[in-house]
Amino acid sequence: MKPIKLILIATLVAAFTLPMFAQKVVPIKFGNMDQWITRKITESKVIGGETKTVYAIGPTQTITGAKPYHGTGGSPWGSSNVLAKVMGVVKTSNAVFPDTHGSGKCAKLTTMLEHVKAIGIINMDVLVSGSIFLGKMTEPISSTKNPYSKMDMGIPYTQRPSYLQFDYKLIAPLEDRTYSSGFGSKKTVRGRDYSEVFILLQRRWEDSKGNIHAARVGTGRQRFGATTKGWITAHRIPIWYGDITQHKGYKSYMGLIPKEKSYYATNSKGKMVPVIEEKWDDANAKPTHMVMMASSGCGTAYIGTIGMTFWVDNFALVF
């Protein structure tokens, strides 16, 4: 009888213990990448006058015309796909595409050269890394200067998840990087690029002058440089809280965002301003915002490995 009693006790312990370790997976809205907005935009005649397709993540529909897009249907996603209008010239850029994954869709992020040519006026290449993020792009883009100043990065968020979960697939060419901002000739930059996914939880506040400050509450960040053999499903990036500089898994790129590379957000006066990340917050602090991005590149703007292709799907938060 003794072994039977032990088995019963073990069964009871397991029954009461398992729920304590159960994890809750909460999908991010439109994070299954199954719905896309198709924008049909005719570029200016001076650069060819072609009608281009530009994609956005959101409720399925088609939008025709050179109309600024700032999100629709409750979608929290922005991307590097944009409408630009520089000196009256309408131009588009598209490096994020819908693709198939199983019975649904995913996002395909690519690093590529956007070529612009107009006889006697413009002849340039701009390197673009395909990126998706929580927030919105402030269209129309009027210049290539400081691209982060055109991205309203982050959404209000007050919870404390343990992981960011998603599926991914990667093709990573074994080549040096290319620098091309459209001004001057293309340059080769030694070293390979990496695709990247990160989630940053911040506690933000605004001062009387409209400046936005932030303390880093939670950090999850990973770079990917090896071509995969198909899809990696339910991959998880852990989110660490407080000052993580002494954490055994800490990498230099996980640190606070330097002031000169600050992301931007709209302040209470309706102005886009840099979010100055000043310090690490207490490990038990409550965030006010979540910043999240997936990109085919991780370097400085206009630098990347041409042909780097990063597929992502099924973004969710795990508690």
Describe this structure in words.
It is a single chain. With 319 residues, the protein is mostly beta strands. It has one domain: Sandwich (Jelly Rolls), CATH 2.60.120. Helix content is 6%, strand content 49%. It is built from 1 helix and 25 strands. Strands 5, 11, 12, 13, 17, 18, 20, 21, 22 and 23 form a 10-stranded mixed β-sheet that branches. Strands 1, 8, 9, 10, 14, 19 and 25 form a 7-stranded antiparallel β-sheet that branches. It has a 3-stranded mixed β-sheet with strand order 3-2-4, with no helix packed on it. Strand 8 and strand 9 form a beta hairpin. The chain is globular.
- CATH third-tier fold name: Jelly Rolls
> What are the low-pLDDT stretches, counting only 5+ consecutive residues below 50?
5-20
CATH superfamily: BT2081, beta-jelly-roll domain
Structural class, by secondary structure, is: mainly beta
Order of helices and strands: HEEEEEEEEEEEEEEEEEEEEEEEEE
Rg, please?
22 Å
Strand content: over 45%
The CATH architecture designation is Sandwich
Question: What is the class in the CATH system?
Answer: Mainly Beta
Count of all domains:
1
For the termini, the CA-CA separation is 41 Å
Give the biggest sheet. Answer: 10 strands, mixed
Overall morphology: globular
How much helical structure, as a percent, in the residues? under 10%
In round numbers, the mean pLDDT is: 90
Figure out the total of helices: 1
Q: How many strand segments?
A: 25
Offer a quick outline of the entry.
The chain is built from one helix and 25 strands.
